[in-house]
Amino acid sequence: MTPLAELLADRIRRYGPITFADFMRECLYHPVHGYYSMTESTRFADYYTSVDVHPIFGRLLARQFSEMWECLDRPPEFTLVEAGAGVGRLAAHILDFSESKFPPFYGALRYVAVERSAARREQASVRAKRHADAGHFEASIEIPPRIPMGCLFSNELADALAVHRVVMKDGALREIFVGISDGRFVDNVAGLSTCAITEYFAAQGVSLQEGQQAEAGLEACDWITEVGRRIERGYVLTIDYGHRAAELFDDHHMRGTLLAYRDHRATENYYDSPGEQDLTAHVNFSALETWGKRAGLETAGLVSQTAFLLALGRGNEFADLYGEGQTEVERARARLQLKTLIYPEGMGERFQVLIQQKGTATSQLTGLAGIS
Q1: Domain for residue 269, yes or no?
Q2: What is the CATH number of the domain that holds 110?
Q3: Residues of the chain with pLDDT > 90: what percent?
């Protein structure tokens, strides 16, 4: 057993089965043994994100953030909060491009990179030191308590927020807890740990079929609620893979969407090597919209990553793709990397972009131009 597995097994033996949400939270975020406390090199061995493909991802995001600043009437300070910022790779891409292409926006920009891991916050601070010295960057363990004007965004964060597992059994919603038997973690089906799970499905008009398993993303609901409270005027931009509720809980997802990732392979072996593999569940965008609305966030639009990036890059024929002095071979490679981000067989159609707004006049953001 891994060190974290020993700790979790001891807890279960002492106090009884735990919710899968508790198990997942410890596996991912335990300060010593959690997956996201591991080194960045380990993460690359298991999966990569849009940020790792090419800087064009951050550059086009910078274009969208600059436009948001314009829509807010160019406030003297625009707080841009990245939740789950990791080692600051995306922050550097956005800051560098903003400084080069949008000097007035950069002058107003205050970038806050939020990251739980102390080691990764330190790496982000080193990576963005020049911007920090100029007063445009800081790393933080928490989202600022107030965001007067700005945008909070995340890329592949919501899928890693802890979920409860449930199953419809004999016509009643039951919860799948984590127990232990013969030294192994096992499913333990029992009554719901909280009535919030019932409310989660009822609020979205979801009824599971007999035998169907699903995830209840209560932590994501709490997260978007808190984000909505802290933003006074501005936007929330969420990039992740998932669906609205009607598709997420349909016949194609009878076993839910929870997956474990290791060595670029996805499995349903959730209990293997706690702390040493990634655990994710598809994002329920309907839940983010519903609970976001309760906190004052109105949905501006939901589009695929393909539509979002194409809309932002089309204006200058993706000139942002290239760096100065690149050879034709380097340019050709950059074009192939772009295809990974926008083609359906790559990341383009698997990932969705949700933009919510609060206290802003209704305006059509360029990234949402692909809404049909």
Answers
A1: no
A2: 3.40.50.12710
A3: 76
